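Work Package 3 (structural annotation) set out to generate three-dimensional models for the target panel prioritized at the project kickoff. During this period the team completed the workflow that converts sequence records into discrete structure tokens, so that structures can be stored uniformly alongside our sequence database. As a representative example, we reproduce one entry of 334 residues exactly as it appears in the project archive.
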Amino acid sequence: MDATLALPLLIGLIGVALLFDFLNGLHDAANSIATIVSTRVLRPQYAVAWAAFFNFIAFLFFGLHVAQTIGTGIVDAGVIDPRVVFGALMGAIAWNVITWLFGIPSSSSHALIGGLLGAAITKAGAGVVVWSGFGKTAAAIVLSPLVGFSLALLLMLIVSWLLVRQTPFSVDNAFRSLQFVSASLYSLGHGGNDAQKTMGIIAVLLYSQGYMEGGFHVPFWVVITCQAAMGLGTLFGGWRIVHTMGSRITRLTPLQGFCAETGGAITLFMATGLGIPVSTTHTITGAIVGVGAARRVSSVRWHIAGSIVIAWVVTMPASGLIGAAFYLLCGLFL
């Protein structure tokens, strides 16, 4: 494809990618703020501003390993073209909107990967899948909530044991302040892992269309633009999902909120450093269930958690089918 002729299409697709990034922030705002809102440490309007700020500055703290994985580690970069990118983005956007309307905390990350796989496989068959990269991502679907669960549960048990002689009032006051720290760390992890997925899509699109010299990389303007789009999305919030994450799974105290956010943040930091695109939704849900189970197993509303798990299972196939449909639909007009 001639680069000059492709420029208007390229700009339009970058706009669609940034729309997905905005919706990702909107959809996943609950991941960053559900606990700090549900414990009444911050009012919702202040919480989203707090989370949006740390979402935006995440690029200062992390490398771009996740963007590299999305760009070249899920499907063969040689199969990427505007139709594949459009199908991937529309599959993810459509699934995000559907789950947002129903208040289901599904994974924007896996919706994007599902859409990408659906469009790419429709174009060139299953041989285009980079199984090593996809395998790491698939494993993270199971491992990230388990790690978040385990770390949050362990933190809850350790902190509870250390503070056993303290009064509930003093513990509550202390952890209301500490939740500012844990929420900041989680928002950094969220911005660091999730914004990079859109960076990878935009970068591989530029690479496939000949707009990138010196091999595949992520230009700085792509980094800043994606971080800003996600931050703005978070600023607008996603209140339906905040309610599910913050109160319907289990009721949280400031101590529990701190342990859930810290356990989730550690999980995201590790995954981002390893270049694994994990679901921030899966991670914080596992952590919230962990702190609830530390109190007592019956305190977790397992039927709510179960419905969320079902949404996780169907996210990638559903977005993949939508991505494939949009890939075929796009072919009718191009």
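The two ends are 12 Å apart (CA to CA).
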